[in-house]
Amino acid sequence: MTRVLAAATTPPAGWDQSVVAPAGGHVLQSRAWAEHRAGQGWQPRFITFDDGRSVLLLMRRQSPLPGFAAYAPRGPISAGDGAAAVAERAIALANWAAIEGCRVLTVDPELDASADYDRLLAGRGFGEREEIQASRHRMLVALGQGVDEDELLGRMTKSARQRIRAAERAGTVVEMDEQGQALPDLARMLGDAAETKHFYMGNVAPLVAWWRRALAADPARLWVARNEGAVVGALLAYAQGGHFATAYSADDRSSRDRLQGTMHLLRWRLIQAALAAGHPYADLGGVDVAGARRLPGEGEPTYGLYEHKRSLGAEWTESAAAHEIVLRPLSQRLAVAVGAVRGLVGRRRSAAGGG
Rounded to whole angstroms, how far apart are CA atoms 265 and 166? Predict the structure, then answer.
């Protein structure tokens, strides 16, 4: 059985090479993410297993309650190993966390859906939980050996190709923004989309701070679409697991009637970059129905996004769910109750104008 070999408060040498670069690796396992979350009150632990693999664990205490909650964001990674090996690491993490005083542990690797993985975790007391990240499943454009741009364009719908060409004819140019100068524009465009589509964005300042940190640490890439010098779209992707994965993207909604195809062109440039880099696929991100975590149906909020990504040749790919294990039931019930009371008090203060 896999066991935890070491738990450090600082990342061992070559940390990102062990948890971001390999297959199944993710930027949310990186040193940069650990530093970002540490600034928000989480305590990072850099865990090494006896099978040579690693996982970033984030811990948070809720004073004056005993114990702590813990979360492995997009971890433990597979690193090319099978689902059973990933499940063994999750179980080993739970065994270690229980000894350390953890109340509840969530694991959330980016792993293809697997009945074996679910069965092994269920046998040790884990259960599925609602996703913490925005999406579980992904829309992937398969690349691979022998694939070229003509083939990729041929997989697209006629309307998608037309929109790409229309954007180019209109003078829209997509460039890399290594310094992140357009990040405020991306935040603004996402905010406009949130208001229009009625989804929650929250405080954008920490989000922009994370984007800057990720660009500086090099696990992120920012493509920016400009027309006549103005930013009309942007796409932030993570470089992880041997591919590019879309993290955030938006266009200028006020210019849609005048400039069609901005997002088609941005995603096409991402696909082209992935092809040039020899990646096995390009990840265009998720289109999940929140709560249900399934393909969206016609009329649902994410159906248009699903149709858009599918028009570019992307295929729906199911991933494993986030799983949770309650290690100290009484303490966890108390923590949930205290959290509910604090939330109710906060809402009442806001309704009364007390901040």
Answer: 9
Among residues 174, 170, 155, 197, the alpha carbon closest in space to that of 302 is found at 197
Q: Give the CATH class of 150-317.
A: alpha beta
- pLDDT, tens digit, for every residue of 95-108? 999 999 999 999 99
- Give me the residue spans of the domains in the chain: 4-135+320-351, 150-317
pTM listed for this prediction: 0.91
Residues with Cβ within 8 Å of residue 60, at least 6 apart in sequence: 41, 42, 43, 68, 69, 70
What are the structure tokens assigned to 108, written together? 């959330």
Residue 194 contacts residue 207 (beta carbons within 8 Å): no
- Please list the residues that pair with 58 across neighbouring strands: 44, 71
Tell me yes or no: is domain 4-135+320-351 CATH 3.40.630.30: yes
Q: Sheet containing 102-107: which strands, arranged edge to edge?
A: 4-8, 43-49, 54-61, 68-72, 102-107, 323-326, 127-128
241-252, pLDDT tens digit by residue?
999 999 999 999
